[in-house]
Amino acid sequence: MPIIEVSPGVSLAYEGFGDPGDPPVLLVMGFGAQMIAWHEDFCRALAERGRYVIRYDNRDTGLSTKFDDHPVDVGRFMAAVSSGDLATAVEMAPYRLTDMADDGLGLLTALGVERAHVVGTSMGGMIAQTMAINRPERVLTLTSMMSSTGESGYGGSSPEAQAVVAGPKPADREGYVAAAEREMVWASRRYGDPAVLRELAARSYDRAYYPAGAGRQLGAMILSGSRADALRRLRVPTLVIHGLDDTLIDPSGGRRTADLVPGAKLVLIPDMGHDRPRELWPEILDAVQAHTAG
Fold first, then answer.
1. Residue range(s) defining the domain that contains residue 10
2. Total domains in the fold of the chain
3. pTM for the whole structure
4. Residue 132: count of CB within 10 angstroms of its CB
5. Three-state SS letters, 19-66
């Protein structure tokens, strides 16, 4: 697995699929997830449609750089945020979504890619939005999938989904894999499959079990705030995809994103939760292919 330095002190693990001469598509993964959550078959299917697909591990996940010298106590951090003690919260969190967006753009630069189509899912959608906002000249198109705008009134989680995110995960492999089934709470009601969740959890655990990064990524999301005003000014061609079964980031997050970005196209997918079930890949791939065709 190639690992490349994208800025001083930050290196990212990445993988490319397809012909580097084809239009590049950068896939940005979500909170706490490794790049392997973009399934290899999905990446190959998009590459077969004439795209050069790049997936990578965000900082603090997978095989990319870990910020071990900045430990974050999630309970203390959330207590500081809830009480309005932002000074303490800011002191605890070492980076923001802007830094994570710079990582992705730095990867493109290191690979000799000047401009790319950027597709982000969940927190990755927030990172992709930030790339397009801060460096629109580098982003050919933006696809924001199952994500939101950073505004508190949109894209909320159900109590059941919040409980799963906030709950501790077992440290042992067997317990960790079994606990993945809890994520069925936000999966597609029609296509969600506990076996698929367990399989990804097993691969993720074996590849790079690293729960410590989640607190820092959570801090990056919370402290980066609203992107609403910047999205209103965005002129990058934008596609928003959201599943109607999503209980982790309510579909209002996708609707709001599409409402704010001038000319954005909104695709709401029935039977899709906060996941990408294989049965819905054709619809997702069709939408991404059409959006990145220009």
1. 3-156+212-291
2. 1
3. 0.97
4. 28
5. CCCCCEEEEECCCCCCHHHCCHHHHHHHHHCCCEEEEECCCCCCCCCC
Locate 195 and state its tokens: 């076996």
At 116 the three-state DSSP class reads strand
Looking at residue 139, its pLDDT comes to 98
Task: Estimate the share of the chain in helix, then strand, then coil, as percent rounded to the nearest 5.
Answer: 45, 15, 40
**What average pLDDT does the segment 142-169 reach?**
94
Whether residue 185 is contained in a domain is answered as no
Question: Does position 294 have pLDDT exceeding 80, yes or no?
Answer: no
Closest CA to 209 of 74, 67, 59, 34: 34
CATH code assigned at 232? 3.40.50.1820
Residue 260 lies inside a defined structural domain of this protein: yes
Residue with tokens 């001038």, as numbered in its chain = 262
- Does residue 64 contact residue 191 with C-beta atoms inside 8 Å? no
pLDDT, tens digit (0-9, with 9 covering 90-100), for 92-121: 889 999 999 999 999 999 999 999 999 999
* 83 to 80, 90, 194: CA distances (angstroms): 5, 13, 37
- For residue 232, tell me if it sits in a domain: yes
Q: What is the mean pLDDT of residues 40-51?
A: 98
Give the pLDDT confidence score for residue 97 in this predicted structure. Answer: 98
221 close to 126: Cβ distance less than 8 angstroms? yes
Task: Tell me the β-bridge partners of 256.
Answer: none
Burial tier of 191 (Cβ tally within 10 Å: 0-12, 13-18, 19+): middle
197 lies in a domain?
A: no
| Distance separating alpha carbons of residues 6 and 65, to the nearest angstrom | 10
Give me the residue label for tokens 């993988």.
Answer: 15
Neighbours of 87 (CB within 10 A): 9
Model confidence at 78: pLDDT above 90: no
